[in-house]
Amino acid sequence: MIRVRFEAAGGAVLDVEAPPGARLLEVAQNAGQPLEGTCEGQMACSTCHVIIAPEDFGRLPAASEEEEDMLDLAIGAVRTSRLACQIVLTDALDGLTVRMPAAHRDMQGR
Ligand code: FES
Hints:
The model is unreliable at 105-110 (pLDDT under 50). The longest helix has 9 residues, at 65-73. With 110 residues, this protein is α+β, with helices and mostly antiparallel strands. It contains four helices and five strands. The N and C termini lie far apart (38 Å). It has a single domain (2-99), classed as Ubiquitin-like (UB roll). It has helices at 24-30, 54-57, 65-73, 103-107; strands at 2-7, 13-18, 49-52, 81-83, 96-99. It has a five-stranded mixed β-sheet. The site of FE2/S2 (inorganic) cluster has 15 residues, from loops. FE2/S2 (inorganic) cluster binds next to loops.
């Protein structure tokens, strides 16, 4: 199993385990994280935007150009932002820390 840590925008931490081959989007949704994933992985919505902990970012395979284009549109995107629907868990990602973006707060100007 691969361990994943989710950090809510408010700071709450949740540790889960998922089998290799699971998509991060589904793992997050099953763990009750607030990711809509509206387009179900078609890279057409960016509602699955997450922020990878900087120390873990280098372990992920690079984003495709399409993914980068969607991230440009994501609210609150940062250098280590990714689309959770594009990330498949492998043993190399064990211990990954994933943060939920605080998009709703950004829209209200904090
Ligand atoms: S679910 Fe729409 S881009 Fe990931």
